[in-house]
Write a structure and sequence with these properties.
The chain is an all-alpha fold. The chain is built from 27 helices and no strands. Helix content is 67%, strand content 0%. The relative contact order is 0.05. α8 packs antiparallel against α9 and α23 packs across α27.
Length: 558
């Protein structure tokens, strides 16, 4: 029942589902208040339940709700977890209609985050985060730098306090991971409400320069940033309650398959930490950057060769997000070339696509920000490995089979070419091969978040014709063909998803480039035609009918 209600709320939205919401909310409340069926009716029962445990090691301190964390997935547990998921959907998809229920469900979900079963706790953390986001959207933003006194922050506090309890007390990794992911979502919502752009390089500098960060000031006033940062450090050090039996950074002493499986299980918590920590760095402000040096050092330990690949993959993913958030600070600049060499090594040797994908993305971002710290040998080696990732074999098949890795490699090539005033793009030894690799990788097929970097980079390179090695009369046609492939891919997608295009939705969120990026491509083609009509017209004439029609339609629409 709850699942059906949640999906209906998502499909209908606030306006159409409003009349059904009160009844659905009552059903959710009834499910959440069901008796769990676990109770001790007498001291004898209590003694029986604890019989055989004469240890005096303080383990009672770790019990939740005065007892044990039960893992039996009963019908009641399933119903409560489903009710939590439904409440999350109501808060997300019916934010206006759900407002009257915010106080009650803030209290209820806070209690559910301490439920005896991990499945309920995990779903309750996610629901409480959605409730906090709903409250933030409905609350007017306070101007100035004083802590925001909006009632919405009562729910924000409840969600982040629940995460604090989970990181401190919970022994289940999945529940702890859900709590950290919830905190990351709430903190990002607070930051965006204060005007932060979390996709921007060096977003933490905005906190120090902005005079309207009242929500972030409230997070600091509640000690949320400091407390959660400290707990994230405990996670990275392997000292959290849910890691007491985990030593994923140490040789497990078993066979390789057992080690890999165990490291993947342990990586669940690290992956969630990778979501939360960069958000904390961003809202802490660049003046607080030194406080995160211990976190960075712990992550650096996790990219060593004796650490299992899943843990190394998460470490690289977290490192790059911290670097993006914190900007160019001394303690990162000092080790950036070392991390870059590690990325290059992994791209040549890693067995798992996830590790290669994270490393190639990390390499591009590091070079974009710290190119001046990389010596000539490092630049050459980086260019070689990026071209290798984007190479094809004698049958014209990709050597790198993972499309996400190829898309991230294309992003890394674009960042490399544009770093330091496009110095490598002008390099006669390195530039031509990198430009060729970039064009070969277009269009993207998997990681469309790289559209801005890859397609925007191609547009910028074409505009530099005459300055960039390999971009002349011979190459202009290849740029036009690359842009035509993008246009064809977008035309195919429009045919598959006509409703999205008719509604004018931004297509770049998950499935393609944004409308702005497509307009930039069209402008670049028109400018190239004005500068060299013969080369562009010749290139267009050589296109297939589908590509020519798609490019013509793109030029007309933009």
């Amino acid at each position: 029942g709850h699942g059906l209600f949640a999906e209906t709320a998502q499909a209908l939205g606030d306006e159409l589902f409003a009349e059904y919401l009160p009844g659905c909310v009552v059903k959710a409340k009834e499910s959440l208040e069901l008796d769990d069926g676990v109770a001790y009716d007498s001291e004898d029962d209590d003694d029986d339940a604890n019989a055989g445990d004469d240890s005096d090691d303080g383990s009672d301190d770790d019990d939740r709700n005065g007892g044990i964390n039960y893992s039996v997935f009963s019908g009641v547990v399933e119903e409560k977890a489903a009710a939590c998921r439904a409440v999350a959907s109501y808060a997300l998809y019916c934010p206006v209609s759900f407002l009257p229920y915010l106080p009650k469900f803030t209290e209820t979900m806070s209690a559910m985050t301490d439920h005896m079963h991990d499945a309920v706790r995990a779903q309750a953390h996610a629901a409480l985060a959605r409730i906090a986001q709903c409250a933030l959207r409905a609350s007017p933003h306070s101007s100035g730098t004083d802590p925001d006194s909006s009632p919405a922050f009562a729910t924000v506090d409840a969600s982040l306090n629940a995460t604090h309890r989970s990181l401190t007390e919970d022994d289940d990794r999945d529940a702890v991971a859900a709590a950290m992911e919830a905190a990351a979502a709430v903190i990002q919502s607070v930051g965006e409400r204060d005007g932060l752009d979390f996709k921007r390089i060096g977003v933490s500098t905005l906190v120090d320069s902005s005079g309207t960060c009242s929500g972030i000031a409230r997070l600091h006033a509640g000690q949320h940033i400091e407390n959660l940062s400290s707990l994230c450090l405990s996670i990275l050090q392997g000292k959290a309650a849910c890691q007491e039996d985990v030593h994923d950074e140490i040789d497990f002493g078993g066979d390789e398959d057992e080690e890999f499986a165990e490291s993947e299980t342990a990586a669940v918590v690290l992956e969630a930490c990778a979501e939360l920590l960069p958000k904390l760095v961003a809202v802490a402000g660049q003046r607080a950057a030194p406080a995160f040096e211990p976190h960075f050092n712990e992550l650096a330990k996790r990219i060593a060769g004796d650490v299992p690949e899943p843990a190394r993959s998460v470490a690289y993913a977290t490192i790059v997000e911290i670097i993006k958030a914190i900007g160019e600070v001394p303690f990162v600049a000092a080790v950036a070339p070392v991390i870059l060499r590690g990325c290059i090594f992994e791209l040549r040797n890693a067995k798992t696509a996830g590790l290669r994908r994270n490393c190639v993305y990390c390499a591009g971002v590091i070079f974009e920000m710290f190119a001046s710290s990389v010596d000539d040998a490092g630049k050459t080696e980086l260019a070689e490995v990026l071209c290798l990732v984007l190479a094809k074999d004698e049958t014209n098949a990709w050597r790198e089979k993972d499309p996400g890795t190829r898309d991230n490699a294309a992003g890394a090539v674009s960042r490399t070419l544009r770093a330091s005033g496009s110095a490598l793009a002008r390099d006669e030894q390195i530039g031509p091969s990198l430009v060729a690799s970039l064009l070969c990788a277009i269009p993207l097929t998997s990681d469309f978040e790289e559209c801005v970097s890859v397609y925007g980079g191609a547009v910028a390179l074409l505009a530099m014709e005459g300055e960039v090695n390999g971009v002349g009369e011979r190459r202009v046609g290849q740029f036009v063909h690359a842009f035509a492939r993008i246009a064809e891919a977008e035309a195919d997608r429009a045919a598959r998803e006509p409703k999205q295009h008719q509604n004018g939705a931004e297509p770049g969120d998950a499935t393609g480039p944004s409308l702005e990026t497509l307009r930039e491509i069209a402008t670049a083609v028109r400018r190239a035609r004005n500068a060299d009509p013969g080369a562009v017209d010749t290139a267009i004439a050589a296109l297939s009918d589908a590509q020519r029609n798609a490019l013509t339609a793109l030029l007309a629409a933009a």
